[in-house]
Design goal:
Number of strands: 2
Largest sheet: 2 strands, antiparallel
Distance between the termini: 71 Å
Order of helices and strands: HHEHEHHH
Shape: elongated
Radius of gyration: 36 Å
Number of domains: 1
Number of helices: 6
CATH architecture: Orthogonal Bundle
Helix content: 55-70%
CATH topology: Non-ribosomal Peptide Synthetase Peptidyl Carrier Protein, Chain A
Strand content: under 5%
């Protein structure tokens, strides 16, 4: 049983999947930082300091005015957190765009690796050589004037 488990783990697919999950988790942390630390401040600057992650509507319950989304949720009120949803959509779009660019680059590298190397300019083909020999043999004047032609 241990041997079978070891064979299962040693398969390329399982290892590739594990590496993909680890890289994906690290990539998610980078994208979350990109959105929280770079894009949100720029959006806040463009919108006059508005932080979209804390935008919500109170559907039911009592929430002090100006309370953060976390405070509204902690109070037990039902909130419609459209700002958090908008930021999740933005995160998704950024991740999807980055993955698209990554896949596009990998595909380009694979095409370059699979591209057949250009053939070096070779001499005449076998058919062309045979045609030249035939033409030389047919030309009796070459034979009459001197030594046999060099082929």
């Amino acid at each position: 049983m241990i041997r079978e488990f070891r064979e299962f783990i040693a398969r390329g697919n399982v290892i590739d999947l594990a590496v993909g999950i680890i890289i994906g988790a690290a990539f998610t942390a980078i994208v979350n930082s990109l959105v929280a630390d770079l894009i949100n401040p720029i959006l806040g600057l463009l919108t006059g300091g508005v932080d979209f992650t804390n935008k919500y509507f109170v559907l039911s319950g009592n929430v002090p005015e100006g309370a953060s989304l976390a405070a509204a949720r902690d109070s037990g009120a039902a909130v419609f957190a459209y700002g958090a949803f908008a930021m999740a959509v933005l995160n998704f779009l950024i991740i999807a765009w980055a993955v698209f660019l990554l896949v596009k680059a990998v595909n380009r590298l694979q095409r370059m690796a699979m591209k057949p190397k250009e053939e070096v300019a070779a001499g005449p083909t076998q058919e062309e050589l045979l045609a030249q020999i035939r033409d030389l043999l047919a030309d009796r004047t070459v034979w009459a004037d001197g030594p046999a032609p060099r082929i």
